[in-house]
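I am still getting used to backbone structure tokens and would like to learn alongside you. Label the sequence line and the structure token line clearly, so we can match residues to local backbone shapes. Would you write everything just below, so we can both look at the same thing?
***
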Amino acid sequence: MDVPGGARGCADLRLRRGARQAATHPQPPNDKSDPLRVAIIGGGPGGLYAAALLKRLDPTRAITVWERNPPDTTFGFGVVLSDETLGGIEHADPQVYEALQRDFVRWDDIDIVHRNARHTSGGHGFAALGRRRLLDILHTRCRDLGVDLRFHTEAPKDLPRTHDLVIAADGIHSTTRETHADVFRPRVTAHRCRYIWLAADFPFDSFRFEIAETEHGVMQLHGYPYAPDASTVIIEMREEVWHAAGFDELGETESIERCAKIFAEALRGRPLKSNNSAWTTFRTVVNDRWSHGNVVLLGDAAHTAHFSIGSGTKLAVEDALALAACLEEQDTLDHALAAYEAERRPVVASTQRAARASLEWFENLALYLDQPPRQFAFNLLTRSRRVTHDNLRLRDARFTETVEREFGCPPGTPPMFTPFRLRGLTLRNRVVVSPMDMYSAVDGVPGDFHLVHLGARAMGGAGLVMTEMVCVSEEGRITPGCAGLYTGRQAEAWRRITNFVHDRAPGTAIGVQLGHSGRKGSTKPMWEGMDEPLEEGNWPLVAASALPYKRFSQTPRELSRAQLTDIREQFAAAACRAARAGFDLLELHCAHGYLLSGFLSPLTNRRTDAYGGPLEKRLRFPLEVFDAVRNVWPGERPMTVRISATDWAEGGTTAEEAVEIARAFAAHGADAIDVSTGQVVADERPEFGRSYQTPFADRIRHATGVPVIAVGAISSWDDVNSLILAGRTDLCALARPHLYDPHWTLHAAAEQGYTGPGAVWPAPYRAGSRRPQTGRTDAPRPRLTLGR
């Protein structure tokens, strides 16, 4: 229910068609002498709206909609549409838009009710109407235009042969998709919560989230008005809570009565009603392809997005808009279907990432129950990462400022510029320059490049600047250009850099990351061929097990007990040199498939001795190394551990195991866990996207109580503020943004108008501390909206 914007594909169809015709000279984009015969399977909003658009754009088209159910059959009650989607409808078909406008119920507030406290955030701009009313409007429009609507009728199997175009809008259980599964290659993922669509006979005055902590576990209510006298009510809970509460043994009537009793206060003592309602589990649908010959998928048949961001009907309507536009613009059907998929796929993928984040937040709701009340509310509102600190402040400044004040932000201080303490080290802000391998050392010695690289980023204002992975032995390097801490000469070179940071960027801490390449060593620098073996000068590799990283990679030797002892001592010796070199913090690298990570993952540790097998044995050597390093590292200086919280591969480290790994290191004295993912096996399948790794840090933080550092496609100061204020992380580490802009943190302060102690400009640079004004600054900022 929280997705703002993003309605690409909703452009004015008339303008798009005109632009296309102008660009292609006198020939129209489609040959109107032979109008399309179009069959649409499924009479839901997406299929009906596609039928109306296609018929309106070309009345000569023969369009038939096949729907197996009666015309008034629908599941659920209300539909929420965003202003962006409505804008597309208004341009494409003003008559449908006007009919919708007459029936919409509008409201601005979101209420979050948790532990007898209600917190309200305003300025969100919702609009909803009943599902049956939406269908009535689309039925009327289709009939007025001459669309052939066939209810109570199964779609014939030979439609692709008898029609020019077949639009499969037959829903999440699409028969069309399954019939051609070998072409569409669908992936359907079931999730952990049960939910049921119900309705109340009165209108909520806001969008309402209510949390019930029962003896069986946590349950939640999602509710919103869709008519002057009615509201949609969705009850959701994890599968194990559903079973524990006995819902699996109750009939429909008993189930509904139990829900009404649990949420009696929210429902004002009123009953709930059903409409073909049944408990179900949400399933995410993804298809590798959306078309096959003259058959194309639309709406839930092609993709689904969890109802908590309310995008099912919205996405289907926008699919219809885009498909109609592409059919007008392109010269052949094949080109039109390809253009439709190219236009819609990125939008859908982005929405599905947001929906997945929202879905998982509610699956793990129990983790957040003990947060301070307003922080809990802020966390819920920003769960999908579509709503952020900055745009929530635009919507409701008072609410956001209250959350900041309870978090401990002094007036005018963004969350990212609040201090954070790790053992004896206080960081002046929450920004970390993430470790980034530079492959620019000679014989492991950092030189002028490292001084300039790390010195520039230290003067750029970050609270903590981390070195690249610094290797503990010559054999433990990734490439010949890797820096080390296995000689006194290397330690002296690092001392030069730490002195510079402490002298020229006072208040910025510098940390060292110690690691050993394991089976991923003896390779070329990244820009010459990432993970490719050297053409000459290779050195032998060692690892937890004798498994090469890639098919063409060198096969490492499995480490013996004696070698394990030697490597443990190498780490301890490197830590002693790091302490003498003046580093403020030490991080042990147990991620990304390097040596210690190789022991943790079941995909790379096949040992049968005391260091392999179940997780507690796979942890043994990394913990031994941690203990050896912690014993020699100064007691007042903090020590962190970087882990890969998932291998993004079947059979690899699970999210539950990642929590146990973090808990084990914390028990041995780790002050924070730096939570990364992947790079453990070459055949991984990461789910890339904005802030895509942060949910793993979030889970570890709330499950263990250990401070965490979040990484992974965090690119804006707004993201940092959002993650910090929501309590999903304690620190944010950014890599590429600091390559683009060494002064990223100071520029973030300037852009937010912050001049406090969390962002201190070096004296020679203070004249540039004010953001240049390049245009008007008094123009009003646009009001943002949310909606399904």
